[in-house]
Amino acid sequence: MCDLSICQAALNRDPVLYLDLTETIRRKEGHLIAALPHGALAAFHSYEKDGQDLGFTMFADDLPTAKRLLAMLPSQPDFLTVHEDFYLDELKKRFGFGGLNPCWQAGYLRTTPPPAPSAGAQVHRLDLSHLPIVEANYNAGSSDDGYLSQLISWGELYGAFEGDTLMGFIGRHAEGSIGLLQVLPQYRRRGLAKLLQSHMIALELSRGHVPYGQIFDGNEASLALQQSLGMSQSIGRLYWAVKGA
Asked: What's the pTM value of the predicted model, to 2 decimals?
């Protein structure tokens, strides 16, 4: 039986770094394709199209293991997270991925959520009437024009509201990480980012999940926010590879 026990010693060296892989398997939101003593490859169910896996996460301790796992991918995957930089050139050569910007991973390893700050706002699930504001303010981009509307239809985008006014939003990415955090410029410095992040941590804990997310290297404000809420930071960095990026 294929499971992560064969590479658990490697995963334990930096457990926060590998949460996107280990949580995907633990939550049964994906399946393990291969587990080796020095690497593993898993597919995200949310990226399956027409019966084919197109979104993945993997780690490898050495180049032979990396090449062995990369050979198991389809010819044109949509999305891949990797946890080492020594085979990024191999990724570009095989699949033509661009970008590959480094990220830190943050994970909430406590069992009780952080206290929600008082920010004079209420957090509610978004609907499609809010899509234009989300599209206008979400600056990370997406290779899929329907990605944000899909997240809304899944009920995975939430907003901070003052009355009917949407002031900021956050969500859960298709592969399971917390992200998409944006506060509209005119409403910043009111504690809304902390309110939204604490809401998502509490929501994920209520689902039995270990909350996790990624922060681009150099985004010190976001790193400080995660730390203020009790999120632990990975030792190493991971890389997003997205088709068309």
From this structure: 0.93
